[in-house]
Amino acid sequence: MTPAPVDVLIRRIDPAVPIPSRAHPGDAGVDLVTTEAAELAPGERAVLPTGVSIALPDGYAAFVHPRSGLAARCGVAMVNAPGTIDAGYRGEIKVIVINLDPRETVRFQPFDRIAQLVVQRVETVRFHEVAELPGSARASGGFGSTGGHAGTDNPYAAVGPGGTADRKGQ
Ligand SMILES: O=c1ccn([C@H]2C[C@H](O)[C@@H](COP(=O)(O)OP(=O)(O)OP(=O)(O)O)O2)c(=O)[nH]1
Ligand SMILES: [Mg+2]
Question: Where are the stretches annotated Disordered (predicted)?
Answer without folding.
Answer: 138-170
